Amino acid sequence: MNPATLLEADQLAVRVGPRWLCCEFSLRLHAGECLVLLGPNGAGKTTLLHTLAGLRPPSAGRVALEGRDLSSWPAGELARQRGLLVQQQPDYFAASVLETVLVGRHPHLGRWRWEGPEDVELARRALAQVGLDGFEGRDVLSLSGGERQRVAIAALLTQAPRLFLLDEPTNHLDLHYQIAILDLFQGLARAGHAVVMVLHDINLAARYADRVILLDGLGGVLAGGRQEVLQAEALSRAFGHPLRHIAVAGRAHFIPD
Which tens digit of pLDDT belongs to each residue from 143-167? Predict the structure, then answer.
């Protein structure tokens, strides 16, 4: 086991009821890398992400974090090592933005310990990273969808895991913040974290991914390096529409044919 390997899937397969979302595949994600899950709607990207997060057991194979099966990690310890951004952020009660972001510190606090000045400073720094400095006192119920998404990302940054798992992190974000947030997580990966994210935009995947898992919605899966997986023929087959590869300024793009 490479000591820099954070996440490993070994002969992993995922099934929901009678339907196989992905057949057996293996992949290793190292510190410093970004993995993107791609595929059409309903292909099982979120279910696979939750499996990689340890929220559901695999139907076959194993998932390991730092060489240790996810099923063997105590919940609190696992929460300090990996963090998950879910698709939707339900808010049932009023709370300030700062209080909401500080939820990310809960895995690091003892049972009877309150957040201290260092935790508050981490939360404020995270809000600044997502362009929400000055929002600390706002009620989360008053925020736009894009602002609420950035609050959720700030809470995840405040959690400070080694492994980030992101389900559609660009949800509700305009173009400026899509790129800013993806740049932010790419920078975190380069600083020694690892990132797994579900994306719908093939060209954003081509821009940010080091590794890709491509689901075709029929149980088929391709997993490997970006250049290996992001091929026009494989993408066309998975998404059910012919795509053409073009290169602009040395960067790969895929356009409908």
Answer: 999 999 999 999 999 999 999 999 9
Total number of domains in the chain: 1
Please write the tens of the pLDDT for every residue from 45-97: 999 999 999 999 999 999 999 999 999 999 999 999 999 999 988 888 899 99
- Take residue 9 and report the two structure tokens written for it: 């899937």
What are the Cα distances from residue 201, in Å, to 11, 113, 195, 208?
A: 27, 42, 17, 11
Assessment of whether the complete model's pTM goes beyond 0.70: yes
> φ and ψ at 235, to 5 degrees?
-65, -40
Other Cβ atoms closer than 10 A to 36: 27
Domain-embedded: residue 59: yes
Instruction: Provide the CATH number for the domain around residue 208.
Output: 3.40.50.300
Domain membership of residue 211 as a residue range = 5-88+163-256
